[in-house]
Amino acid sequence: MTTAIELLKNLVEIPSPSGKEEKILSYIEKLLEEKKFDFVLRQKNFVAGQLKASPKARQAIILSGHVDTVVPGAQADWTYEPTRAVVQGGKIYGLGVSDMKAGVAGNLLTAFSLVEKEVSPDIWVVGTAREELDGQGSEDFAQWFVNNTHYESAFCIIAEPTDLEKIYIGQRGNHFMRLTFQGRAAHASDQIHFSESGLGKASKFLAAIDKIAESLAIYKNDRLGLPSFVATAVTAGDATSPNKTAAQAQVIVDCRLTPELEADFQNVMTALARQYHFTYEDVVKPVLSTLTDEKTPIIKLLTELSAAKLTAAVGSNDQGLFEAVGIPTVVFGPGQHAQAHVVNESFVLKNLEQHVSLLCDFIEKL
User: Fold this and answer.
1) What is the pLDDT of residue 1?
2) How many CB atoms are closer than 10 A to CB 285?
3) pLDDT, tens digit (0-9, with 9 covering 90-100), for 210-232
4) Backbone angles phi, psi at 329, to 5 degrees
5) What's the Cα-to-Cα distance from 47 to each of 19, 108, 323, rounded to whole Å?
6) Considering the entire predicted model, what is its pTM?
């Protein structure tokens, strides 16, 4: 696996924070061209390579993964430099190695092993940008794919970290919202002025947020679980005028939705806005919930080969962006989910070989 380790090290050592993926996308593009893929496509937010079946395939398998990372945070907290891949004790350390450059490496190595071999479906390997921001890379590729290809069926596996022990067949949708509470600014020496302020109104809402979340339990989904409703940021007032109450307060809320809640979400938010006196808007484009049919034969095959458990993702990923254009998608990858976004992020190297072996076996048996 020397070549595999070198590839993964190279990916880790190319800094690629979200929105700055130009260099790593170019690196992958060059690899695909060197390996003589039948077709290589590079656009702003993704790079893709195609291996064509012979005779012409009616089915496509898409091996996808995002190449961007979160920022490292305080570098002093890291034992090693975040973008210097260090191999030690059967692990490799570096920013983004589990989430999800190991998955990208596994996808590439799988596709490389199939070059000049007879494959029954077409194989697409894709590196996407901006997953940690808005999923624009996956959205752009998925839209390009449906507009420019004509397969009878396609199936996508996103190699996000699932420890090779879980297959995510769905995820809750997400709405990131900005709630604005308007009140009256006044002198802070009078206690009544707080309750009349924007921050006073926001405080009443925040005090009730756990009860709001509990009220959403009626929208539980058997596979995706319960919705959540979490405040993540508050802005109000002016610190240079500590004796003046805030006329306005804003609260950012991360709401994770089941299909049941999505069907009634407008009514829920309208009622909450009326009760707690706020207006609201989306911070970014919402992502709808996703739930792929677990009885699909191709999912059954992947489950049998991997012995992985079918479940739903706790967080969100790009699955819904493929599903939105009609491409059934699951999430299954070699990284450790517990290592995502942490200091001294690491990856167990033996999982890379296992990942490639499973994918090759899966494609061979299609």
Assistant:
1) 47
2) 11
3) 999 999 999 999 999 999 999 99
4) -140, 140
5) 15, 12, 19
6) 0.88
